[in-house]
Structure formats: C-alpha cells, structure tokens
Amino acid sequence: MYDGSDDDPFEAIRKGFERFANRTKRDIGGSHPDGKRIARWLVIAAMAALALWAGLSSFYQVGTESTGVVLRFGRFTNFAEPGLHFRLPFGIDRVHQVATGRVLKLEFGFRTVQADVRTEYSAKQFDEESLTLTGDLNVSDLEWIVQYQVADPFKYLFRIKAPEETIRTVAEAAVRMAVGNSNVTDVLTTERAVLASQIQQNLQAILTGYDIGVRIVTVKFQDVNPPEPVKAAFNEVNEAQQEKESLIFQAREQYNREVPKSAGVAKSTILEAEGYAVERLNRATGETARFLALLAEFDKAPLVTRQRLYLETLEEVLPRVEQIYVMDGKAPSALPLLQLRGRTEEVKP
After folding, report:
1. Domain extents for the chain?
2. Are 225 and 189 contacting, i.e. CB atoms less than 8 angstroms apart?
3. Looking at per-residue confidence, does 278 or 117 come out higher?
4. Of residues 26 and 52, which shows the higher confidence score?
5. 96 has which bridge partners?
6. DSSP state string for 154-215
7. Could you identify which of 45, 165, 185, 305 might form a hypothetical disulfide with 298, taking C-beta atoms 3.0 to 4.6 angstroms apart as the criterion?
8. Cβ atoms of residues 97 and 63 within 8 Å
9. Which residues contact 91 (CB under 8 A, 6 or more apart)?
C-alpha cells in the first residue's frame, strides 16, 4: 500500500503487487522467477480497467421522451435534453432520467394486461379501490384513470418521496370526496363528466400545493357500475329512466311538429278570412257605386230605366230556365207554348 515514501506512485503499486506475489509464493511454499513481471502486468491491467471505466462512465444518452437531471456530488447542476452528453466519470456526475415528453397514466379499480398483441383489462382483486360510498349511502363500483405529465423533473424527483404513489393516494382521496358529496344517480348516469372535471381541478390544486412539478392532464371514469348484488335492479331502473327520456323526446318531437302546423293553419285561415272580407267589401263598394249610378239614371228617366232593367234581368235569367210558362190574366189557364228549345237542340248536328 502506498505510504508516500516513494516518488513514483506506479512503482509503489508495483512493489505492492510484488509483496503480494511474494506473500502468495511463501504461502503456497513455492517460488516464481517472474513475479516482478506479473506484478507489472497486473498494474497495467488495473490501469486499463480504470481508463475503460472512466471512458464508459463519461458519456450517457437521454431518451427522446425524457429529460435528464444532472447531479454533481449530489447537488443539482442542470437539465439534459434528449441526445448524447458528456459527464464527469467515476460517479462524480449522476444523471436521473424522467419521462417528461409523454403522458403517464394511473389506473384505479382495474389494471391493463398486455396479452400478445391485444390489450385486456383486469378488474380482479381491486375492490378496495373501486368500491366507493356515495352521498346518499349507496355503493358504486368505479373504474377510472388519471393521466398526468411531469412539468418539472427536479421537483418530481426530489420534492417528495415516491411521487407516483403520492399522486395515486391523492387522486383516490379526491375521487372519494367528490363521489361522497353526490348521489348514486348522478355518479352512475348524468353527472359523470361534471364530477370528473371537478376531481381534476381539486387534484391539481392539491398537487400544486405539494409543489412536485406535476400537471394533471385528465381524469376520466372508465366504467361506473352498481355492485353485483344490486346490478339487476339498477338496470331496470336505468331502463325505466331511458324509456321515460324516450317518451319525453317523442312528445317534444310531436309538439314541435304539431304546434307549427297548427300555427300555419291558423295563419292561413286568418289570411283567407281577411281576403274574403276585403273581397266582400270591394264587392259591396262596387254594388253601391253601381246602384248609385242606376239611381241617377232612374231619376232622369224612370220609365225607360225600369224597362231596361227588366229586360236585362230577363236576358240573364231566362237562359237558365228549363220550362217557360206565359201567364195571361184574362185567360182561364196557361197558354200552350211550343217547345222550340228542345226541338232546336234535336236538329243540331
């Protein structure tokens, strides 16, 4: 072992190996004439191994979806982008890679199982995660996912111990709190999206308070079901609810079809009545003007006007009469009249 008495440290290492070789020879009871040369080769091999270690530990590569956190003697120095980089060897610089370029996912109530090329989902043995008590003291079976992204890799690594487990615990607590403030109908049917958005906001607020450099991308309910013992009854209730919604939709559809139709018919009837009123008014106005004109002529020549009106009326009425009788006040009976009109019609080609 080098104690500082020799000027050449490699000579000291060589002497140390010689002493080790001589001790080995003495222990095994033999002698070796090339002990000095063996020690020299051992020193060279050690130096070569040291140089190889230095070369191999001086370069590192960061993945395309990762960011490297570089520590020198345990203190943070800088971030490393994807690619090949140099560092101080022998463990002086240490690099921790964090997946910052992709979205990470946590699953609750089930786990994704890769079976060859097809993805399968297993919900076995996760009842403790999935069974949740609602605000109206009902139990629901929830399966949900939380997707997050690392925004600050240094905080993600060193602000808190086991960040993934912390996110899982906080997410589960946020979901149970939101579901515990809602009734089972909202959770299982209509308010799932609203609850997921609320959970995402609460979860992000809690993790921001922890300052661990994580951004929540989304919280999504994968599957929500009632527990197995009451699933049949709940399905019946759900079917009744769907049938109710369907009937309401049909009623609204018929209402939207009939009301405009009735409004159109009413408007058409009103327009027809208004048109008829205008027509009758115009006709009455015309008849009044005609009567006043006749009255003026009658005042000028009453006898002639009376005679002319009588003849015009006969010209209008007689063509529509099938049989004509001429009455004479002095005759005892009706005068016979030849049916000239019928014969005339018979001789027509």
Report:
1. 9-56, 59-98, 104-226, 229-320
2. no
3. 278
4. 52
5. 69
6. HHHHHTSSSHHHHHHHHHHHHHHHHHHTS-HHIIIIITHHHHHHHHHHHHHHHHHHHT--EE
7. 305
8. yes
9. 57
What per-residue confidence (pLDDT) applies to 113? 74
Element (H, E) at 220: strand 214-225
pLDDT tens digit sequence for 53-92: 766 677 888 888 889 899 988 888 888 888 888 887 877 8
Highest-confidence range of 117-121, 279-283, 334-338, by mean pLDDT?
279-283
Tokens of 347: 């001789």
In a 3-state reduction of DSSP, which class is residue 3?
Answer: coil
* pLDDT value for 86: 82
| Token pair 């020299």 in the structure block, residue | 40
Provide φ and ψ at 131, rounded to 5°.
-75, 120
| Bridge partners, 111 (sequence order) | 122
For the segment(s) 104-226, the CATH number from 2.20.28.160, 3.60.9.10, 3.30.479.30, 1.20.58.100 is: 3.30.479.30
pLDDT digits (tens, 9 = 90+) for 103-158: 999 999 888 876 454 455 555 567 778 888 888 888 888 889 999 999 999 999 99
Token representation of residue 230:
């009451």
Of 218, 100, 204, 83, the C-alpha closest to 157 is 100
Residue carrying structure tokens 């559809």: 253
